């Protein structure tokens, strides 16, 4: 597949943006600048970035608790995302959602769900709307290997298949549901094997390779827009960090070996993408480094934005409950 | 004024709203052939696309309704209260919480029509009256009609409302006949019943009886019976539990000094409990006797009619409770 330089550089830019965002989150969270859960996406950047590069602003995504990578991959704003993590009024959700519930409806980000598998039926519903209105938008949902065992996913894949809905199921198989290995909890060798039960294509893709994820998603989007129905894409990947910030302090024992972590760190999705751009003469080392530096600066500005944004007022507590408000009981 | 059966009122409301707004569609199990009655003839008029038979996947299609509503559709989901448990994650984690959690970005004009079939030997799995559990979860508007006219007018309001609504339809009323005004008789040219406006069904002076769903009608029967003994009962139908029109109830209690609440839900943390607590907090000095709850017994629904009939509020229990407040 011919992919133009702008698209390839956009993917690099978004992967660096996620990486630098997450590194900064780890830094400021460790320094106690905000509390609450946060789940770093480091190591998995190619999955969301490759998939979202195949979408338009008018297409929809939904995601899960490991939630910073998806909106950034879809073109969301890091300043509003960071302010949300800081619990500030200028955050994406005015400080009411936090790390696990980033959303930007203006560019089709229907929100991240802290209950795993729970956003999958929602994404199917957006795709149902496309079909009922004869519109061409598609809906794409991210979930993990852990959520691939949720009934919500299986009901959703069945619904999408029987109604031939324009939805793309993207499994980010990072191989562990918190500390529990996918190998001991999934009944098939690959999550993508589950597609056959729902009469849809199931693709096993190298999740460290943004271009491979992009190409698989382009084909899934084409099928979806053509009315040919859903696709399941499994991006095999690995999270380089702990499940969530601070989990290492509470768990009792190891669940991954240093060798395994190191082996996967050698397959860094950003390095893989940069090496290819440089080898093919698409970008120089300096140009790639400049993307890293630019995104670091943007993340620094995002932290400044977050720190300078006020906390919500007490009077904001009851705002946003209703579209047509009713009296407080 | 036409005599209309309760279930026809549901059907009229859905059909009228589907004619009025192309974004309205209905989904549920066995709705094309209208197994539960309310969706009769919709398939013929609106076609397969807008009348969707679903697989047995409540979590899946409850959530699909959420997603469709987020992007501009107005889904009406038909289900039974007893099947809601299977789809609770989508109702609670998504429908109820999404707007707030996303700082007001999400708008969810979705209606869940949850029928409560109880009192007919359906046993524990098919007889739930679960609205109090949803009152406890912020995020839903909760509608609970007691007659055909309110059923129609409230369901139309729910379909037009931009927030998630659960309409609890009392299956014991499905065959109830009642007057539903013709549109030409109405000032707005159509029957719309707003949320949060209780109805004083019967005026009286000695005791206020708040009824929920079919209990409103038991309360009216109790009022008739007590009138023969010279006792005057004021019957109030809240019509919606969220929002709840406490002003009408408090005003009535100010007049009567006594309160009985008849509620088909199990009595612990019931709608009756909440109404009792509101009056205890805000109307205590008007009370001349302890508040009486006439709710369902805290037990599962037994199959045998000999036992099932003991569980629910009925006219006799309401009469006895009113007499306790009057010490007669």
Structural commentary:
- The complex is a heterodimer of chains A (329) and B (328).
- With 329 residues, chain A is α/β, with parallel strands linked by helices.
- Chain A has a single domain, classed as 3-Layer(aba) Sandwich (Rossmann fold).
- Chain A has eleven helices and eight strands.
- In chain A, helix 1 crosses helix 2 and helix 1 crosses helix 11.
- Chain A is globular and about 50 Å long.
- Chain B has 328 residues and is an alpha/beta fold.
- Chain B has two domains: 184 residues, 3-Layer(aba) Sandwich (Rossmann fold); 128 residues, Rossmann fold (3-Layer(aba) Sandwich), CATH 3.40.50.
- Helix content of chain B is 38%, strand content 21%.
- Chain B is built from 13 helices and 14 strands.
- Chains A and B meet through strand 2, helix 5 and helix 6 of A and helix 3, helix 5 and helix 6 of B.
Q: Can you lay out the helices and strands and say which pair or pack?
A:
The complex is a heterodimer of chains A (329) and B (328).
Chain A lengths: L4 H26 L14 H8 L7 E5 L4 H5 L4 H8 L23 E5 L5 H14 L6 E6 L6 H12 L4 E7 L2 E2 L2 E2 L20 E5 L3 H16 L5 E6 L10 H4 L7 H8 L3 H11 L5 H24 L21
Parallel strand pairs in A: 1-2, 1-3, 3-4, 4-8, 7-8
Antiparallel strand pairs in A: 5-6
Chain B lengths: L1 E4 H15 L3 E5 L13 H9 E3 L4 H13 L3 E7 H4 L3 H9 L1 H4 L9 E6 L14 H5 L5 E3 L4 H13 L4 E6 L6 E4 L18 E4 L4 E5 L3 H13 L5 E5 L2 E3 L3 H11 L2 E8 L4 H12 L9 E5 L8 H4 L6 H12 L2
Parallel strand pairs in B: 2-3, 2-4, 4-5, 5-7, 6-7, 10-11, 10-13, 13-14
Antiparallel strand pairs in B: 1-8, 6-12, 9-11
Helix pairs in contact in B: 1-8, 3-5, 9-13, 10-11
